[in-house]
Amino acid sequence: MKIAILSDVHGNLEALTAVLEDLEGRSVDRICFLGDAVGYGADPESCIETLARSAFRSVAGNHDLAAAADRQALGRFHEDAAASIRWTRDALTSKAKERLRQLPMEWRGEGVHLVHGSPCRPDRWEYVLSAKDAERGFGASESRVIFVGHSHVPAAYVEVERKRLFTGVMRRIEAADPAFLRLDPRYRYLLNVGSVGQPRDGDPRAAYAIFEPEAGGYTLLRVAYDVERAAGKIRRAGLPEALAQRLETGN
């Protein structure tokens, strides 16, 4: 089995198309999506429909549910994100919004846990940015491999030891290089696959991962796409300039 794990497309059809084209030659059996099909980018409807056709499993992201809820307050979003959500709400059809509303908050099965933010209170949209955050995530899941997105920055955390004490469980968590990883069956993993549509790690190329559960394989991949075209669409739509610049810098 070979599974592609995608996250955070954010209305960037050029990046999503490039990733799907890259997957055509990789003999992937399934595609799983970790949320945020929309927000920031100028092609939300097309991205929703493309993912609905392509993904075997999908979960909701915070931008997805905010865009689908016309009356939800946007106080938890920064100014540019809130502006893009308001624009996205107007751009989406009722059918697309209903697709977003139907997405589950998380999915567990076959030793895998899919969630947009942390497994700890998925509806709070917490980030996993440190070993301490990962420890909380491991504590909220019994799955061997946990896939997350949300931060737009690839990361890998390994639970190498778990001891039961008199009052609970002590975990030893180590950060690992997400670009070079072989999954040891003795350990558990929390893996952030980065972002397809708005990377923030200094590399503007689209990021996604391929997971091979039987072989213990995990490969983080980067795919070049037409950034200039995607950024131009953002500008022509009247969305905040910073959103176009972010695509160009990868930050």
CATH architecture: 4-Layer Sandwich
User: What is the fourth-level CATH superfamily?
Assistant: Metallo-dependent phosphatases
Residue stretches low in confidence (pLDDT < 50, at least 5 long) are none
Please compute the radius of gyration using only Cα atoms: 18 Å
Query: Strand content of the residues, in percent?
Result: 15-25%
What does this structure look like?
The structure is a single chain. With 251 residues, the chain is an alpha/beta fold. It has a single domain (3-249), classed as Purple Acid Phosphatase, chain A, domain 2 (4-Layer Sandwich), CATH 3.60.21.10. It is 31% helix and 24% strand. It is built from 8 helices and 12 strands. The protein has helices at residues 13-23, 44-54, 62-68, 79-91, 94-101, 131-139, 227-236, 241-249, and strands spanning 3-6, 30-33, 57-58, 106-109, 112-115, 145-148, 155-164, 169-176, 181-182, 188-192, 206-212, 217-223. The strands form 2 sheets. It has a 6-stranded mixed beta sheet. Helix 3 (62-68) crosses helix 5 (94-101). It is globular. The mean pLDDT is 95.
